[in-house]
Amino acid sequence: MSFLAPDYRAGSLADVMPSVLAGMDVPGMANVLGLPAASRVCVLLVDGLGWQLLRAHADQAPFLTSLAAGRDPITAGFPATTATSVSAIGTGMPPGEHGIVGYSFAVGPDEVLNALGWRSQGNGVGGGDGDSSVDLRDRIVPEQFQPRPTAFERAVAAGVAVRLVGPAHHDGSGLNRAALRGGRHRAAHALGDLTSGVRDELRGPGPVLCYAYHGDLDLLGHRYGPGSDPWREQLAVVDQLAARIAAGLPPGGLLVVTADHGMVAVAEQDRVDVDTEPSLLDGVRLFGGEARIRHLYTHPGAADDVWRAWGEILGERALVLRRHEAIEAGWFGPRVAEHVRPRIGDVVVAAQGTLVMIRSGVEPRSSRFAGHHGSLTDSEQLIPLLTASNSR
């Protein structure tokens, strides 16, 4: 695995929805990715379907593999994690503009937001895998936290019917309100009503855009590891899901299949436990991110010492940059809004190879994962962009 910076200028996840909507004649949208124009489109986001994983397990996914022939992957963005990537899809903007800069990140002087659940993670130093009792939607209002119009809102304003088909608990969630607002939600409880729901919505009065989400491949990748037998079985199910949606497209309909990130498998020797390395917490005020990418928010005057300590301990196993260096390197996009900058760690640590920076004491659940994602390797960054159409 090698370092791979996201390609925000010529092909990233943030370009998918604008490219789709340009083909639906929505004003102000650019078809950077050269997607076919269509008036009825389903964008299927498969959580955790990395390009390299798809290519390595082509036998489990013959339909998706056939669509991948002759195509190139795109990049997810940084961090390569669900909250950030879903926000890129929904807003059509890179992280530096939509502001969801990771799985968890600072939202004030003493609080870390878990963006997936829109809940408090305490200070991230001793706050654990997330305090499920503290819902922040009233205090950190999602529509104010990410105030710019989403791609879906712009589509609706142009006369496109926007439908979201996915888990019931996503409806009204903080992340959906911040990044995916504008469309009407339709709950899907299993693959059967996900497939039939997409078909029903695409048959409604057009033009119509249907965004569908499937998360179980990522779930099994975390639990058993990407490429494991359970993961491969789930990939086969995902392949059938995509094939059935494609088979049910209305005349002139288009299916676009993409993902939010890839994944790497890790072993015990790949784990650095921050909670057993006290020098890695010296000077750290708030702790965000996840095992493959860490946001470190330091005490006043301690940023350089923290940067130096993490660099010395991790060596070539990680890229350790100060905030201004990560911004200048373009990790979060070509532009980073002023109000977004404080959400990025004073020090940002991106794992190389298969390193994970676990927290066994305060993140016991995720520290046991067999698969992780988030960083800047090709295994995590490269994702598919596949299309199937009904030309009848």
From TrEMBL:
Its domain of life reads: Bacteria
Q: Which GO terms describe its molecular function?
A: hydrolase activity
Instruction: State the name under which the record lists this protein.
Output: Type I phosphodiesterase / nucleotide pyrophosphatase
Species of origin reads Parafrankia irregularis
